[in-house]
Amino acid sequence: MANGVVVPNEYQYGFSKPENYVFKSRKGLDRSVVEQISSMKSESEWMRGFRLRALEIFFGKKMPVWGADLSTINFDDIYYYIKPTDSQKKSWSDLPKEIKDTYDAIGIPEAEKKFLAGVTAQYESESVYHSFQKQWEDKGVIFLDMDSGLRQYPDLVKQYFGRAIPPADNKFASLNSAVWSGGSFVYVPPGVSVDIPLQAYFRINAANMGQFERTLIIVDEGAYVHYVEGCTAPVYTTDSLHAAVVEIFVKKGARCRYTTIQNWSANVYNLVTKRAFVEEEGTMEWVDGNIGSKITMKYPSCYLVGRGARGEVLSLALAGSGQHQDAGGKLMFLAPDTSGEIISKSVSHSGGQTSYRGLVKVIKNAERVKCNVRCDALILDELSRSDTYPTMQVAEDNVRIGHEASVSRIDAEQLFYLMSRGLSEIEATSLIVNGFIEPIVKELPLEYAVELNRLIQLNMEGAVG
Amino acid sequence: MKLIIKNLKAGTGGQEILKGVNLQIRPGEIHVLMGPNGSGKSTLAQVIAGHPSYKVDGGQLTVDGKDIGKLTPDKRARVGIFLGFQHPVEVPGVSVFNMLRRAKQAIGSSTTSRVLPRKALPPSQSVSGLTEIPSSAVPPSASPAKGHNLSRFRQELLEYASSLKLGEDFLRRSLNEGFSGGEKKRNEILQMMALAPKLVILDEIDSGLDIDGLKVVASAIEQFIAHSPQSSVILITHYARILKYLKPDFVHVMVDGKIVKSGKMNLAKKIEERGYNAWQTV
Questions:
Q1: Domain boundaries, chain A
Q2: ipTM over 0.90 threshold
Q3: Which of A278, A364, B97, B196 allows an S-S link to A282, with CB 3.0 to 4.6 Å?
């Protein structure tokens, strides 16, 4: 079977468009596919070597078996590189109609007009659209797709690329390192505060597609940036694979917020490695919303390497029928006076499964570390489940670490209270669910909060009654 | 609203609590229901509101001639029934405003403004209000409930809150979460005022209130009655002290799941002096 069949579904972004692509690699992965990708991108010997070394590591690594069930991924049945257009466009109207229609349906051009400093839209393997407000460019901020970043700033990229997440980190990081394409490159110069968000939008259109974007963000001393990513895909009978790598470097006194609204269709394996290195007095905030996908395994992490650095992970997971969200976060306290927090809220319904997986590690001599972990799970019915896997490795005594966890169901008295005010069971349930996740939703940009609430309501309509 | 309760029997977990309650409430009347602990007063309130934990084993509940016994709690609310809870439930992350705005949409569309049948509304309407989002941020397609109406509703709520001596930030707080006992009770009254029900059941609204709180709540109820002369009120209470401020048309005594005595104001006075001993068999 060459292509999957599009399945009618309530998922709003489940449509697909015809493939009028410039290039599509053959299925499967070997050295020649990697060489072909590198040569199509006219890369330097350094990057070509990096890719090929990573490929060897990928072949040598076993599939991870400690988390969600990945046994059904068939690496030979995936397209690793698809180039949808001959060049990146600066205007939506220059895009091929089917691609433009896709982004219109998702509402990206609208969002760009309203509240974004820059937008990059990736379709399959390449960024097809990119815009960035001149005022930020003038201040020395760099916002490019990763391929352009590598071409235009090879030295800067080389200094950081693969330094937070080396190819050998895990099997999917090595896979990404071998076949990566697209993603974002962001550099914010010292003291510059980009006060409206940059957005990247990732779309998979083809069946059996593998999307492997690679993002590198460097926030120089005292600077600030908020980067937002969103993801959707058509609903096919066959599976797609999304394995991204995101590396972030937060310099002294800088702050970075990285917000994800992941709404892949329920046939996408979403296996992503995200890591930030945070220097003295810097702050990294991951706001990680996982709504879609078949299986997600993602644990955004902060390596707090400088005194006084802070890391936060706000994780939200919603799992319905056929979904497993294995999410959480990692905080590594590697310097004194560092602090951090992981807040995880998960909701499982209609047979869905959520897992919280977290690591808190404090090394010896990282004195006065303060850390708080809170994970709450809400299970809406008997078919669904939730598990918690917290790990603590604390080698220093002079620390303050708190951990709280709860698992609950929709409370019958809450339901009656709200229904006695006139709300239907569905309305009352979604209100309770939204109240449950509110501590995370309130951290999202308004437009995403609205979208998220709408998604929850849709999900609840499927779950209740 | 006219409520008729005929030989109502109900219980939970196999235990019969209401053992044949008869009560008739006409539009605009205020009834007081008194009785010792465990006599079934709160159960009666919850059964009228449709609590799913109680099983009705016999009898009839009709509102304006219509049997409501099979309706779910939300449908009873849409008919115009409002229960002020003795122990209001905490709903974390859901603001007072957000809940009331959704409740008003749900109730308003089926009772007051019949021009907008509920089923005809796009499903997205109710969604936009899930967290407190300024109406300006909601895409037009998602909010047929115009921002104009919304700000008017907010203004109205602020006035009610202020009349109950609740601060401006009260509407933004999570429903009953971290509220003092008095705030919880005032919040119930705030909801009553906002939703303008036709039958109000207040279950021990006076407990947990200090004397100032009691005055504020009583005067709000008075105002509500003055503005809605057709609305009926059932006050469930242990004490006659709230009756200093509210003059009931009828007083009933409930003992062991039945109404054993009905009378006027002087019955309440008698109870205050002598207790319920006269009606208790044990």
A1: 91-415, 416-465
A2: no
A3: A278
